[in-house]
Design goal:
- The complex is a heterodimer.
- Chain A contains six helices and no strands.
- By secondary structure, chain B is mostly helical.
- Chain B contains three helices and no strands.
- The termini of chain B are far apart.
- Classes of the chains: A mainly alpha, B mainly alpha.
- Chains A and B meet through helix 3, helix 4 and helix 6 of A and helix 1 and helix 3 of B.
Chain lengths: 173, 70
Amino acid sequence: MIASLFWRKAALVAHVTASLGWIGAIVASLGLAIVALVTDDSQIVRPAYIALNVLGRYVLAPFAFAALLGGIAQSFITKWGLFRHYWVIFKLGITIFATVVLVLYLRTLEFLAGVAASPAVTAGDLAGLKTPTVVLHASAALVLLLAATVLAVYKPKGMTAYGQRKERSENRE
Amino acid sequence: MRLGDEQIGSDPVIGPPRWVKVFGVVALVLVAAFVIMLASGHRGPGRHIRSLDAGESSHPPPTGQSEHRP
């Protein structure tokens, strides 16, 4: 069912806003993670990991789910469909994959924040916090979301067999 | 122009373009690597920061701590 232009644009605004928020939060996380990795100042390392946990739980995860649900909603109310075009399928796959990895990684962020917030944290613990894992995950997420953005903007040609059959049957009606 | 307009009217189903095959191979490799990591239990805090997870402090103290003096 294709919705009216007003609702399609409203859904697109919501989807683009959620996706932008997700990418923005990833860039913010990447900045915090890089600073926490390269600095030797515990006054910066500890709040950086606490902030990363807050960002992950209350910004990244909600925006990720909003972008995923918004994208699925878009496919139902526009001509693009969910399984008609390859670019839509790949974008959906990228979004699901990035969301699953993010949800699994929240445990790690919570653990790191717990160590950073502990009043009994030792110098060895702080050294252990200086791990490149957060930078790697944030960088990989950024690459994935940029790939999804490129797909959404360029919409490369290619219809699935299902999409071709649907298009033909719709044109016959 | 609507995508796939040039395909309308041709009865045989047109196969996926080259970019789909390239993306598909990359996606398969990524997903396989992820599944292997999950299946082998190499995920979570213990995987990323082994020394902290085990309750050890085997790392040397970072420079800039209170005990360090230039």
